Amino acid sequence: MICKISSTVKETSEQDLRRFPRFLIPLTLLGIAVLMLIVVGCRDPEGNRLYALHLAKAPTAADWERALPHPIIVRGGRVHKIDVFPDIDKDTVHTSTPSCHHGGAIPRPLTVDVRAFYTDSDLYLRLRWRDLTRDDAMQQWRFDGSRWTSNGLKEDGFGLMWQPPTDQRPFSCTLACHIEDFGVAGATFHATNKMKLEKAGPWLDLWNWKADRTGRLGFADDRWLDQKGMHGDLPGDLMRPNSRLASGQTETVGLFGDKDAPVYDGQGRIIGKEFRPAGSLAPGWMVERPIGHRADVRATAFWKNDHWTVILRRPLVTGDPHDVEFSPALTDGIAFGLSVMDNTLDEHYASRGSEWLILLPPSAAEAGNPE
């Protein structure tokens, strides 16, 4: 609901100001402050609700800028840094500055700006968050003219968990996966990703976007989660390490280590003894393009000005038994949780409260805002 407050402004002469009782000035300022609070309160939808407006076609860049913003605070992860606890004598500035991206202090919570639209056929989500390092080349290989070396890095990413509307239990990331994990369920420190439900019960729909492994092919991995772990909507592994050791071509231990090397180059060709210039690259992981319901969630992403922006698109109804269905008829919405990874596979940030996605009926889009 938007409160419309109109006022008439007229010029006041110096003589009028002299006549104004001075003791009323503080009361007037207080009244203005209260009025501003009322206006702000009228404009702010319920805090844990993400509202999706209906559009006739896919949202444009202008549509995203006018969309209703919904900030989600995630806690408990690690920012990308050089050392977990650097030597303070060697790196005083970094370890004494909690906000520094390479510092050793416990990281501050991260705020993710989430926005949503839907059409007659699809749901669109946009997630944007600050990340000072672009990590989308997981364990990438580089050739120096004589040997291959892996960069040893991980990747950025996020996960969205959706609770089926038939499941009426309280829901959040902490209750679903990390209730016994002090890093998330507690007040501070770092989360360790167990990626399975702590208790037996209904499944959760899970979307995983990985900056390198799914990002390069424009999708988010559509899976589901239960007490046994993660399962693809279409079974099978889409990702495998690009490693001679992993492929069984050598007996040397140390995956991605000094004595390992890639099997395929960046074009998917087997690497032999042919000439390659120094600086040639090869992916750390090979990824198969998903098919069937594993490919239901499409993604476009870019990193700019120290921020990731990712737009997801999924049909409202997929027909898969482990996919939630989105509809404006669900007036209470769909509960979901969010986790964010920064150059890691497990120590991630996670939302702690219940978030709800509500698809407003098409008539609400004409009004401009939810009441």
TrEMBL record:
**Which one Pfam family would you cite for this protein?**
EB_dh
Q: Which GO terms describe its molecular function?
A: heme binding; metal ion binding
Task: List membrane-spanning regions.
Answer: 20-40
* Cytochrome c-552/DMSO reductase-like haem-binding domain span: 111-337
Keyword list (alphabetical) reads: Electron transport, Heme, Iron, Membrane, Metal-binding, Transmembrane, Transmembrane helix, Transport
What is the protein name stated in its UniProt record? Cytochrome c-552/DMSO reductase-like haem-binding domain-containing protein
What is the native source organism of this protein?
Geothermobacter hydrogeniphilus
Name the lineage.
Bacteria, Pseudomonadati, Thermodesulfobacteriota, Desulfuromonadia, Desulfuromonadales
